[in-house]
């Protein structure tokens, strides 16, 4: 697996028995997996068994461990790949086995988590607009300004939704200009 230098440094710190003894490593590993699969779990920062570890170190190790775990699940890495990568970070065999066992136990939930992440923004399928002219505001002051009520119908993964907003003439012209620029950029990118 290809991991960044920061992730490798975090894993090396996690592997260091002077920073994480076996008991704190076990607790830390359980908390990392819990933080990935359940949204309301206890934080590694608040756990009493990990209070003696520097908070910055805990955050760095947590980030490195979650990155490693998610990357392993994403690539469907086998035990030899995971072991090799962790041994490169100076993990002891018992720590590798502990992490791998937890990974196998939570693999289905982690795969579901990764499959639920959607990187595609919603697609606009239809647009409607209406001109509204405001004569007075709620304070009975004269306003005399037009505004546009825009309704965009969007679709993502088969589910439809509607986005509604109001804008002035200048804001609408700016939006249209930006949309034209985006369309030109897409056209240029597709021709390259």
Automatic annotation (TrEMBL):
GO terms for biological process: sodium ion transport. Residues 123-190 form the COMM domain. CDD domains: Commd3. Pfam families: COMM_domain, COMM_HN. PROSITE patterns: COMM. Coiled coil: none annotated. Belongs to the COMM domain-containing protein 3 family. This is COMM domain-containing protein 3. The lineage of its organism: Eukaryota, Metazoa, Chordata, Craniata, Vertebrata.
């Amino acid at each position: 697996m290809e991991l960044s230098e920061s992730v490798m440094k975090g894993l090396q710190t996690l592997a260091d028995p002077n920073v994480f003894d076996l008991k704190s490593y076990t607790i830390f590993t359980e908390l990392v997996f819990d933080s990935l699969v359940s949204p309301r779990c206890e934080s590694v920062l608040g756990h009493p068994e990990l209070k003696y570890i520097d908070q910055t170190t805990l955050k760095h190790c947590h980030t490195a461990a979650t990155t490693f775990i998610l990357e392993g699940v994403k690539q469907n890495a086998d035990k030899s790949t995971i072991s090799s990568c962790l041994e490169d970070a100076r993990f002891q065999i018992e720590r590798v086995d502990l992490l791998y066992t937890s990974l196998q136990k939570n693999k289905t939930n982690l795969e579901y988590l990764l499959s639920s992440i959607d990187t595609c923004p919603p697609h606009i399928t239809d647009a409607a607009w209406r001109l509204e002219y405001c004569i007075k505001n709620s304070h009975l002051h004269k306003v005399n300004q037009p505004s546009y009520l825009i309704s965009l119908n969007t679709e993502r993964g088969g589910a439809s939704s509607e986005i509604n907003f109001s804008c002035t003439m200048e804001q609408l012209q700016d939006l249209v200009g930006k949309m034209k620029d985006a369309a030109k950029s897409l056209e240029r990118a597709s021709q390259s």
